[in-house]
Amino acid sequence: MKQIPSNIKNLYDRYLIKKAIPKTAYFLYRKWLRYYLDFCEKYDFNQLNKKSLNPFVNKLENKGQTEQQRKQAYHAVSLFYELGSSKSEKDALSKNKKGDLSTKKDIPKPINVSWVPVYDGLTAEIKLRHYSPKTLKSYRSWIRKF
User: Fold this and answer.
1) Residue by residue, what is the 3-state secondary structure of the chain?
2) pTM score > 0.85 for this model?
């Protein structure tokens, strides 16, 4: 799971202080925000669009989260929306460190990457765990397909 970008985390932490959220709850609020940002990326939602909050809470319900947890997650994400209500904060939230809009396409494509170290590491791990040679063969074929 991705971490919250540092610029967003800093803004969010300051906003939690401003809203008098107990320090003991900061960890949980950051966790819900991290889950929400991950959800938005995974399911192609705009992280600043409030329409994505209900599907997020529904997903938490499907995952077996309690009503109290869902309420806390809802509140954590609502604070994130409030944080992005001003134009300057919205710009800061929607940009990554380079100043570009963050998208899934930011991940660079590897060029001329050698898979030899991966195979060597896999072989060493299989031998260390005393797995069958057939397991190594199967795992190597999956890596090759990947």
Assistant:
1) CCCCCHHHHHHHHHHHHHCCCCHHHHHHHHHHHHHHHHHHHHCCCCCCCHHHHHHHHHHHHHCCCCHHHHHHHHHHHHHHHHHCCCHHHHHHHHECCCCCECCHHHCCCCCCCCCHHHHHHHHHHHHHCCCCHHHHHHHHHHHHHC
2) no
